[in-house]
């Protein structure tokens, strides 16, 4: 698993970590019971603060995607991937609505939006 932090993203660093770990769980890159890097190890490899990685792990723990085992570390939980995928789709739908509103404000017509989307999907 490879986490990439973008300085150009509108998302906070901890949110980028959370999203990438969620995707890795959804795509079965990370499997139930698999150990995650320690908070310090992840922070060091990403060159971010320990507080940032701790916050990311706390968010994932709140969503029951990972669990902490005292003295051992963090492990991927056995999750309902259908539920997780549905939550992800809802978030993406919200972002798409916002993006479409921006397109409309820019004066784009439906045909132009569809054309641009088709072009981007073909890349």
How do you describe this structure in short?
With 123 residues, the chain is mainly alpha-helical. Helices cover 59% and strands 7% of the residues.
Describe what this molecule looks like in 3D.
The protein is mainly alpha-helical and 123 residues long. Helix 2 crosses helix 3 (50-62). The model has no long low-confidence stretch (mean pLDDT 91). Helix content is 59%, strand content 7%. The two termini are 24 Å apart. The chain contains 5 helices and 2 strands.
Summary tags:
single chain, about 120 residues, mainly alpha, two-stranded antiparallel sheet, 5 helices
Topology:
Blueprint (H helix, E strand, L loop, with lengths): L12 H14 L12 H8 L3 H13 L3 E4 L3 E4 L4 H25 L4 H12 L2
Antiparallel strand pairs: 1-2
What proportion of the residues form beta strands (DSSP E)? 5-15%
Main beta-sheet annotation: 2 strands, antiparallel
Cα separation of the termini:
24 Å
Rounded mean pLDDT is 91
Secondary-structure content class: mainly alpha
What would you call the shape?
Answer: elongated
Low-confidence stretches: none
